[in-house]
Amino acid sequence: MTELRLGAVESRFAELIWQGEPMTSTELVRQAEVALGWKKSTTYTVLKRLCQRGIFQNRDGKVTSLLSREEFYARQSEQFVEETFSGSLPAFLAAFTRRKKLSQEEIQQLQQLIDANRG
Fold it and tell me: pLDDT over 90 for what percent of the chain?
C-alpha cells in the first residue's frame, strides 16, 4: 500500500497545491518560497516525492492532484484504521471514546452516517 502519511511540512506544501491547482510548477515554486521559505530545489524534491506516492502529478509543467484533499484524508484514515486496529472501525471508536466522550451532536452525526450506509 502506498504511504499516505504526510509530515507537517509536507501537509502545508500539499495544501498549497490543493488550494491553487491547477498551477504551473513555476507558480508552485513561488508559493513555496513565500509560504515555506523553500528554494526551487527543495520544492521540486518534495513535489517529486509526493508525485511518486501518487498524490500529485507534474505533467508538462502543470501541477495537479491525483487525489483530492478529501480522498487523500479518507484513504489516510482507512489506512490508519487498517494498520492500527486491524481494519475494525468499532475498535477504533472504542479506543477514541476511552479518553474523549462523544457529544450528543457527534452521536447524532454518527447515527446518521450509520443509517445512510446500512445495507
Answer: 86
For residue range 74-114, list pLDDT tens digits in order: 999 999 999 999 999 999 999 989 988 899 999 999 999 99
Phi-psi domain of 2 (left: phi exceeds 0; alpha: psi -120 through 50; beta: other): beta
Alpha helix (H) residue ranges in 7-88: 8-20, 25-36, 40-52, 69-85
Q: Are strands 23-24 and 56-59 parallel, antiparallel or unpaired?
A: unpaired
What is the model's pTM?
Answer: 0.79
Q: In the chain, which segments carry CATH 1.10.10.10?
A: 8-69
CATH number corresponding to 8-69: 1.10.10.10
